[in-house]
């Protein structure tokens, strides 16, 4: 990740732009997910849990609107 210093830009502003770029690129998320080994079955279970959670939230939101 590379961020160029602009004319008369403070270090805080530069750091803020750098942080935003890192988050946008997803580098940190990838690093954290690869920190430990996760088996395929464990990945499937996590994916199913996430899908179920998302489905319930969607149902709750629809019920709340009616």
Please tag this protein with its features:
66 residues, mainly alpha, 3 helices, 0% strand, flat
Describe the structure.
The chain is mainly α and 66 residues long. It has 3 helices and no strands. It has helices at residues 11-25, 27-33, 40-65. It starts with 10 loop residues before the first helix and ends with a helix.
* Helix share bin: over 70%
Summed over residues and divided by their number, the pLDDT gives a mean of 93
Number of strands: 0
pLDDT < 50 stretches: none
Q: Provide the β-strand percentage band.
A: under 5%
Radius of gyration: 19 Å
Termini separation (Å)? 46 Å
Largest sheet: none
Question: What structural class do helix, strand and pairing data support?
Answer: mainly alpha
Q: What is the 3D shape?
A: flat
Secondary-structure element sequence? HHH
Number of H- or I-type helical stretches? 3
Oligomer: single chain
Topology readout:
Layout: H1 11-25, H2 27-33, H3 40-65
Summarize the structure.
It contains 3 helices and no strands. By secondary structure, it is an all-alpha fold.
